Amino acid sequence: MAMLKDKKIVLGVTGGIAAYKAVEVASRLRKAGAEVHVIMTKGATNFVTELTFREISGNPVTTTMWGEVTQWNVEHIALANLADMVLIVPATANLIAKAACGMADDMLTTTLLATKAPIVYAPAMNSNMYTNPLTQENISKLNNLGWNMIPPASGHLACGINGVGRLPEPVDIVAFVENYFAKTASMAGLKVLVTAAGTYEPIDPVRYIGNRSSGKMGYAIAREAKKRGAEVILVSGPSALTPPEGVRTIKIESASSMREAVLAEYPSVDIVIKAAAVADYRVKNVSDHKIKKKDEELVLHLEKNPDILKELGELKQKQTLVGFAAETQKLIDYAKEKIQKKNLDMIIANDVSKPGAGFNTDTNIIKIITRDGNIEELPMASKDSLAGEILDRVMKLR
Ligand SMILES: Cc1cc2nc3c(=O)[nH]c(=O)nc-3n(C[C@H](O)[C@H](O)[C@H](O)COP(=O)(O)O)c2cc1C
Description:
By secondary structure, the chain is of the alpha/beta class. It has two domains: 2-185, 3-Layer(aba) Sandwich (Rossmann fold); 187-397, Rossmann fold. The protein has 13 helices and 21 strands. The chain has helices at residues 19-31, 50-57, 78-82, 93-101, 107-114, 127-131, 133-144, 170-186, 216-227, 255-265, 308-315, 331-341, 383-397, and strands at 8-13, 35-40, 85-91, 119-123, 148-149, 153-156, 162-166, 191-196, 201-202, 208-209, 231-236, 248-251, 271-274, 281-283, 302-304, 320-327, 346-351, 363-364, 367-370, 375-377, 381-382. The strands form six sheets. Strands 12-11-8-13-16-17-19-20 form an eight-stranded mixed β-sheet, with helices on both faces. A five-stranded parallel β-sheet has the order 2-1-3-4-5, sandwiched between helices. The chain has a two-stranded antiparallel sheet with strand order 6-7. Helix 1 (19-31) packs parallel to helix 2 and helix 9 (216-227) crosses helix 13. The structure holds flavin mononucleotide. Flavin mononucleotide (FMN) binds next to helix 4.
């Protein structure tokens, strides 16, 4: 429990039927040594009284932005600045939607928008509200920005049906918070460079040769490393994804510009994870003008791009170097060969021909191979959770 000692936790309570469970969460956090400051939405005050939270937390409770100035509402963003974490229990569909839109129409949403502290949401609602595509889209949006969701449990809901949407037990919510702080400390002081997405190799001013990489795996790794307290640089090829909060993102297009960006950062980083799908070849004579459609055939001559990973392997000093191998055949053989040839410490191999693996999917199936020849096969999982598994293995190597 030492993890929570003196941590300043702003506990946001919203108007869901599970609001009463937030009282036990506040109590457990305080017992574990945290300083708890409660912000209630107007809706929440219909379920639990302000007085209850004041007594349990031992601090004044904020219910409005417009009230008389007391200890913490010296100004409306005082709690946002004070927080080591903002924890929302329960998080209604309404609060999640407002947060995903960046609204700030009450004290809690204003705090969410103004804080630099990590935000953890514990959604709880009727199953249909939870599985509604709008709610799911809002949750994904917050997840992609690097915020955290404590997944709701399944079971009997207050609305009388069985399904997903139940608030997890307070003891589990507090365990999540403790784990979060433990993880945050696990990569503190380390500088991590992640590359993501594919590259565009120009043919002429309007056309390029590209690949199907979305950047999802690399972005998930960057986001997770940031959550664990690392300083993260993300070198990304063209991608539709929003860069994670607090990650320095360098946008590039071609393999050569990726090489330049990566080599410039390389000397100062501790860990490099190259999840990008870098083009092996580029067009030899890029046309200065748009190529006109005239002949029946058009021949493009390609030349080899620099092998960035190999170069990093040759220049390696203190860095832990992790590569990816996306193959459609002889996965393990190619991956093992790549480890040796490129002086890697670890390789993440995925067979991109398998359903649920590889490019432009939300899931992946990976094998983690280390330099000593150890092969670990992981079952299909979301790229978000695999990002954590990969970083766990990288940290074990160091
Ligand atoms: C009895 C009752 C129970 C409710 N329970 C939930 C719930 O568990 N989850 C939820 O998302 N909304 C629930 N709602 C709806 C919210 O209270 C409503 O969307 C409200 O606008 C939320 O405001 P807030 O997010 O600012 O607290 C409930 C409403 C009532 C009347």
